[in-house]
Amino acid sequence: MSPEKQREIASKGGRAAHERGTAHEWTADEARSAGRRGGQVSRGGRGRLSPPDGAPTASPQNAETPAVGERFTSTHVE
Fold first, then answer.
1. What is this structure's pTM?
2. HEC states along 9-70?
3. Would you call 50 exposed, middle or buried from its count of C-beta atoms within 10 A (0-12, 13-18, 19+)?
C-alpha cells in the first residue's frame, strides 16, 4: 500500500475518533513526560544510543563473528 493511501486511511480514523470524542489529546505534562522517557531510552540521557533493557552490551566472539579489525574471508575455519 502506498504511503499516501496509508496517510489517508489514518487521517480518516483520527477524524472519526475526534468526532466520537474518543481521541486522546495530550496535555503539556503528558507530552513532556513522554518526550523525556523517549529520550532516556534512545540516548540513555547521555547523548548516545543505549541497548534495550536486558540486551547484552557486547556481542560474544565466535567463529562466525570477526574480532574488531578483522575481515570475513571466503574460507571457513572449523
1. 0.35
2. HHHHHHHHHHHHCCCCCCCHHHHHHHHHHHHHHHHCCCCCCCCCCCCCCCCCCCCCCCCCCC
3. middle
Q: Grade residue 68 by pLDDT with cuts at 50, 70 and 90.
A: low
- Whole-number percent of the chain with pLDDT over 90: 31
CA geometry: angle 9, 11, 15, nearest 5 deg: 120
The mean pLDDT of the chain is 75
